Amino acid sequence: MAGGNRSLRAGDLREWLSWFDASLVSLVVGATAITMLAGLVQVSFGAFTMSLGTVWASVFDPVVWTNPQVLLRLFLGDGFGTDVARFLGLSTAEVEMSKETLIVWQIRMPRVIVAMFVGANLSVSGAIFQAVTRNELASPYILGVSSGAGLAILLTLVVFSGLASLLPVVAALGGAAAFLLVYAIAWKGGTNPVRLVLAGVIVSTVFQSLQTGLFFFADDLGVVQTAIAWTTGSLTGVDWEQVRMILPWTVISMAAALVGARQLNVLLLGERTARSLGMRVERARFMLSGIAILAAAAAIAAAGIVGFVGLIVPHMVRQLVGSDYKRLVVGCLFAGPALLTVADVGARLALSPAQLPVGIVTGLVGGPYFLYLMRKTDALGDL
């Protein structure tokens, strides 16, 4: 029995390692390098002037990296981070950091980290939706999930401000409601990729009009400016609060996506084949869509509606590593952060000292790419 268990574990390990072929390893290494470089460029700019050498030395300051309690307090908050450090038997002593290190880590670094989380969430969400609908053009933005989550967030900010602490939950509910509405509109004895995309466009248009209408009910100029930031997608002004808000939902949704990769592969074979293999198709589709909605909603709650990332990244990764979702999800986990951190650098520097919302940059790139996909894809249902 013990030998059988060891054999099973060895088989699982070999299967896991088989995911990482040369193309996926190259993608992971290249995307990681791009993300790190873009992040270093991003933290080099701010109101407090520092040389590049000083900034980069602050990023890799040994005081931060040799004291785990510092990172735990940043990512988890002072109270919970200290409790976790104490539970793990780590030091809980306060650490003295230079002014430059404090500026880089307390003020500038959260923007890079949120960009990474948002890029990963939107990319994996788009990849899941493309499998669930068997449509290469599907994404949270196209299928109305982004608009539904955005409308729910705007309602919270403008009308139900007391629920602001529950933004990820509110966004998830709004995204789920929008996706269910898209399915209801597209349903006609079943759905097909064309009807789903058209229904998504309809729902997105209606919800975006409702978002615009909400501005007339906001008396506070600050609320209006915040609402505009949500609708355009912006990383300006994010801090560790946004990191702590998106972190747990990202961990949950990304882990669930990796676990569900095998089911996504089965769905790609078609409903008839999936059923013949014993899959309860509607249940699997519902559960996987829930993961995609949660990932997209967490991203929108932290950065607003950043369009087209969920469309572009899965398609690019698919061209590099193939359509196997065990590789595709892993590729999206690394390529998404790379794309969004680079886009945010462009948003930061394009009209310096003014800063563009990152959603404008991704829209300028994603719009033409969406047109290219439409012209390239002969059958919208084929992946």
Spans where pLDDT lies below 50 across 5 or more residues: 379-383
Derived from helix and strand composition plus strand pairing, the structural class reads mainly alpha
Helical residue percent?
A: over 70%
- Which radius of gyration do the C-alpha atoms yield? 22 Å
* Count of beta strands: 0
Describe the sheet with the most strands: none
What is the N-to-C succession of helices and strands?
HHHHHHHHHHHHHHHHHH
Taken from the alpha-carbon principal axes, the silhouette is globular
How many helices? The count is 18
Strand composition percent: under 5%
What is the straight-line distance between the termini?
42 Å
Q: Mean pLDDT, as a whole number?
A: 84
